[in-house]
Write a structure and sequence with these properties.
Layout lengths: L2 H23 L12 H4 L5 E4 L3 H5 L3 H10 L2 E2 L7 H4 L9 H12 L3 E8 L14 H18 L6 E6 L12 H6 L3 H12 L4 E6 L5 H16 L6 E4 L2 E3 L5 H13 L3 E10 L31 H20 L4 E6 L32 H11 L2
Parallel strand pairs: 1-2, 1-9, 2-3, 3-4, 4-5, 5-6, 6-8, 7-8, 8-9
Helix pairs in contact: 7-9, 10-11, 12-13
The structure holds (3S,4R)-3-hydroxy-2-oxopiperidin-4-yl beta-D-xylopyranoside.
C-alpha cells in the first residue's frame, strides 16, 4: 500500500474509533465528545491510581480493563496483597494471583503500590487470636521479609504499616503493639527497607488529616526518621463523605507532612453520598451496621442535586491537589466505578452508593468532567 492510501486508511480507522468513543461516552449526563483521560490530564502533576480487585485484571471483563488502563497509571490491589490472601496458612504463601497482577500492571505501564505488609485487619486466620509474643514476632518478621523481598523493585512502593493509629493519635491496641511494643512500626520499616531497598516505603491511614490523628502520624514519621530508617511518604486514605470533605485539615496535613520531607498521597479516595448509620467518620472495616431503607435513599439513581454536589466536592479536592502538586505524588481512587465500590457493602451491606468518577455503566459522571476541568482552568 502506498503512503497516501495508508494515511487514508488510518484516518478512516481514526474516524471510526472516534465515533465509537463518542458513542460510548455520550451518556445520560448530557456530556458528549471524546472522553478525556485522568492519567493524561494530570501526567505532569501526580499519578492517578485505582484499586482493582482480583477479578478485574484477571477476568475477561474487557470494558472494565479498558477503563482501567486508559484512565489510570497506578494500581493498588484492593485485597490481593493483604496478609490473609498472601499467607493463608502459617508459612505457606500464595503468590500466583499477585504475580499475575503485577505482570498485568507492568505490561500496561501502571505502577503498583503493595497494600499492605502490616495491618491489624484481614490477617490470616491463624493470626486472629495470636498473643504469643514469639509467634507474633516470627510472623511479623517472616511476612515482611518474604513478601517485601519477593517483590522488591517489582512494586513501586509499599504501604508498610496500615492504620496503626487511634483517632486521638495514640497507637492502636493491635496484636503487633501488644506483642512487640511501641517500636514495632520503626521495626517494620527497617525490615522492609532491608528486604525491599528498591521500593518506596509509606505509612498509610484514614482520618490522619484530622488534627489529633495527624499529630500521631507526624510522630510516627519523625520516629522512623530519627531512627535513621527510610520512610518515603504518607498515604491519607481519603474515605470522605459528601459535603463534609475536610478541606482545611487536608491542606494543613499536606503542608505538615511535606515539611518532614516525605511525599503525600491520597491513597483510597472515595466520597460516600449515603447516610452513615454509626454517624462516625471511620474507615475501620470491622465497624458495620444493619440495613434499613432509610439508609439506602438512592437505589434507583442519584438525584441531580446530589450528583452536582459530588462534582463540587471532587472539583474542590482536585484544585487543592493541583495547588500542592509538588508535594502530592499520587491520587488513588478506591475502585474504578460505582458498580464495584466497597461502599456498596460497607459499613452496611447491599446499598447503592455513588462515590467514584465513573458510574455503573462505566460512563464518566459530572464529577469526572469537573475534575478534568480543574486542569484547563489553571
Ligand atoms: C477494603 C476492601 O475494599 C474491601 O473489599 C474489603 O472487604 C475490606 O477492605 N482501608 C484500607 C483498605 O486500607 O484495605 C480497605 O479495603 C478499606 C479501608
Amino acid at each position: 500500500m502506498n503512503t497516501k492510501n495508508l494515511f487514508k486508511r488510518q484516518s478512516i480507522y481514526h474516524g471510526l474509533a472516534t465515533l465509537c468513543l463518542a458513542f460510548v461516552i455520550s451518556n445520560s449526563y448530557g456530556q458528549e465528545g471524546p472522553a478525556a483521560s485522568l492519567k493524561e490530564t494530570f501526567k505532569d502533576d501526580f499519578l492517578i491510581g485505582t484499586a482493582p480487585n482480583g477479578r478485574q485484571l484477571s477476568g475477561n471483563n474487557e470494558a472494565e480493563q479498558q477503563l482501567i488502563i486508559s484512565q489510570f497509571n497506578a494500581v493498588t490491589p484492593e485485597n490481593l496483597m493483604k496478609s490473609q490472601s498472601l499467607q493463608p496458612e502459617w508459612g505457606r504463601y500464595e503468590f500466583d494471583q499477585v504475580d499475575r497482577f503485577i505482570a498485568y500492571a507492568s505490561e500496561h505501564n501502571m505502577k503498583v503500590n503493595g497494600h499492605t505488609l502490616i495491618w491489624h485487619s484481614q490477617l490470616p486466620r491463624f493470626m486472629r487470636h495470636m498473643e504469643d509474643i514469639d509467634s507474633v514476632r516470627q510472623f511479623f518478621e517472616g511476612h515482611i521479609k518474604t513478601v517485601a523481598g519477593r517483590y522488591d523493585g517489582k512494586v513501586d512502593s509499599w504501604d508498610v504499616v496500615n492504620e496503626a493509629l487511634n483517632e486521638d493519635g495514640t497507637l492502636r491496641n493491635s496484636v503487633f503493639l501488644r506483642a512487640l511494643g511501641d517500636d514495632y512500626i520503626v521495626e517494620a520499616f527497617k525490615l522492609a527497607q532491608e528486604a525491599s531497598p528498591q521500593s518506596k516505603l509509606y505509612y498509610n491511614d484514614y482520618n490522619i488529616e484530622q488534627p489529633k490523628k495527624r499529630a500521631g502520624a507526624l510522630r510516627i514519621v519523625k520516629k522512623i526518621q530519627e531512627a535513621g530508617v527510610r520512610i518515603d511518604g504518607v498515604g491519607i486514605q481519603g474515605h470522605w463523605h459528601l459535603g463534609r470533605v475536610p478541606m482545611e485539615y487536608i491542606e494543613q496535613s499536606i503542608q505538615a507532612f511535606a515539611a518532614l520531607g516525605v511525599d503525600v498521597m491520597f491513597t483510597e479516595l472515595d466520597i460516600s453520598v449515603l447516610p452513615n448509620a454509626a454517624g462516625g467518620n471511620t474507615a475501620e472495616i470491622s465497624q458495620t451496621s444493619g440495613y434499613s431503607e432509610r439508609l439506602n435513599p438512592y437505589p434507583d439513581g442519584l438525584p441531580d442535586s446530589v450528583q452536582q454536589a459530588l462534582a463540587q466536592d471532587y472539583e474542590d479536592l482536585f484544585r487543592l491537589f493541583l495547588t500542592y502538586r509538588d508535594n502530592v505524588s499520587r491520587v488513588t481512587f478506591w475502585g474504578a466505578h460505582d458498580g464495584q465500590t466497597w461502599l456498596n457493602n460497607w459499613p452496611i451491606r447491599r446499598r447503592t452508593n455513588y462515590p467514584l468518577l465513573f458510574d455503573r455503566n462505566l460512563a464518566p459522571k459530572p464529577a469526572f468532567y469537573r475534575v478534568i476541568a480543574t486542569k484547563s482552568d489553571e
